[in-house]
Amino acid sequence: MLKQVVLFSRSLVRRKVVDMNSLEDSKLCRCLGTVDLIALGVGSTLGAGVYVLAGEVAKGNSGPSIVISFLIAALASVMAGLCYAEFGARVPKTGSAYLYSYVTVGEIWAFITGWNLILSYVIGTSSVARAWSGTFDDMIGGHIEVFCKTYFSMNSPGLAPYPDFFAVCLILLLSGLLSFGVKESAWVNKVFTSINVLVLLFVIISGFVKGDAYNWNITEEYLVNVTIVTRNLSVTANVSSDYGAGGFMPYGFSGTLAGAATCFYAFVGFDCIATTGEEVKNPQKAIPIGIVVSLTVCFLAYFGVSAALTLMMPYYLLDEKSPLPMAFEYVGWGPAKYVVAVGSLCALSTSLLGSIFPMPRVIYAMAEDGVLFKALARINPKTKTPVIATMTSGVVAAIMAFLFDLKALVDMMSIGTLLAYSLVAVCVLLLRYQPDGALEKQPGKGEKDYLSSEESELTESESHLNMLKAGNSTLQTVLHPPVSPSEKSSSVVNMSIGLLVLIVCIISYLTTYHFNSIIGLEVWILASLSTCLLIFSFCVFMVCRQPQTTKKVSFMVPLLPFLPILSIFVNIYLMVQLSGDTWIRFSVWMAAGFLIYFGYGIWHSAERQRQCQGAQSSSNAKQHSTKTIRDKQVEMNAAGKEQECFISPDKTSQC
Length: 655
Description:
Blueprint: H1 2-12, H2 34-45, H3 49-62, H4 66-90, H5 97-104, H6 107-139, H7 143-151, H8 165-180, H9 182-210, H10 220-231, H11 252-263, H12 283-312, H13 323-330, H14 336-356, H15 358-368, H16 387-403, H17 410-432, H18 445-450, H19 453-456, H20 460-479, H21 487-513, H22 515-519, H23 523-545, H24 562-576, H25 580-604, H26 606-654
Helix pairs in contact: 2-9, 2-12, 2-14, 3-11, 3-12, 4-11, 4-12, 4-17, 4-24, 5-6, 5-17, 6-8, 6-14, 6-15, 6-16, 6-17, 6-25, 8-16, 9-12, 9-14, 13-14, 15-16, 17-24, 20-21, 21-23, 21-24
């Protein structure tokens, strides 16, 4: 019984072995270049949010300091982006965060990551398709909504007010385009992204031409007068401003930070670049460059648009739903709103393509590894694309866009994305402190993991002695780290990072749900936080003392281990901010995923098949060697008897 439990536990954390000699081998078509990846990253990240988010955050949270909010959000996103870039250089294969988790922390974590990425991409695709449909409908006067509500109204809780036929057609059209070929899809994406960037350049230049620096220095007295006029107050004594204290940071630095938390999600989308590992001509250089450049371009665009918007129009007058058209009307450039509308549709198109593109690649990678159904891994021999995975994911996203009200589900995207960011940062830390060649294919490694029968031959005293020796050697590694990474130093890092993640979860929970206790300086909360910070500092210190791998790749995360640890902290803190309802929906989705994994994936995993074959071949080799030894013994015995037959008569005759 114990043996079965041990084997089952090992199967959950078995890691994918990557053959470093066959990185260039791919069933997919290698036709994408660095420019294609930059266009894909910019198009996916720089969606319709740039046309809406700046007005919403500037009016409600940050004011003109929204430019600082975007800077803070960009730095937090770049930390995750650099971790993705290093893994893209180390393991340039399809799968993104799913693959990175599989080769570093094990199969169960990889499945959780991949399953949540699928959820994020499905909801992202559906919500962007409905947004595209709604934007187009607004441009033509709302006729689609009126027609559908008249003839196809749905009044059930959880469902959309009406089925969105236009969104369904859009998703299926783009899914067909992706099935036709990745090169054609990349070309369409570059066209739409170029138009989007040109429109944003027009907005930025117009904002600086027609802008007024006074809008960044509005006095509090002026805002009080605006409040009096807005409320129609007759008594003007002791009236406070509804729009903050004025100046560059009208809501204080806390408002700027609150805006940064919202702006962080504007940079989500660059991870789709990491799913192209087997479709890029030079992935080990193109993927890191694509991620870093696309994030830089997106930050400059968000920074420029938010600065132009708050210069053109006072932040308290901004329209939350359509800030740019209103701003152009405010400065007397009304016709410019049509240019903005074209850019918005192009941005939605690239964002939609960026959501659909990585989804079948993650599904394909999981099916290829056997943790999802193998049929999803089939490649079309002509187009070199995962057709079944592409059309299946497209149909699921189309059904969701057709029927459901996605506003309640959009927060679930955040869990999947933030979990993937956190795991990739953890994986970079673990991988950098592993012995050289830990990812590479080593003969016999799988067989050793599977052959537990030899361990059972140890006596009880011997096993206790080995455990004591292992404990002493680990303690020795803690006190006196080796010069180069070893299994023991890697174990120290693994334990430290595991404890560090737990402490970060506790700190995030305490600072989020017991903030009033911190303000009130209650003893228990201060003692808890002090203890957590001490343990956190100790874990960071232990990680810093261990030696890093000497193997160099084309891109490596700087400031290790501090930058990935900071990325983990930011991501987990943002996850804790999500509502309880979101976590309940997330639990339901995970329950469905575990049914698939434990019912199918764990038994059909390619790594399980490899280990079983390794154990079989090892067993055959052992039997063969035993048989050879027996044959030799039989031959020796036969030779001995034969010799006796020849020697005995001589001895007898001598006697």
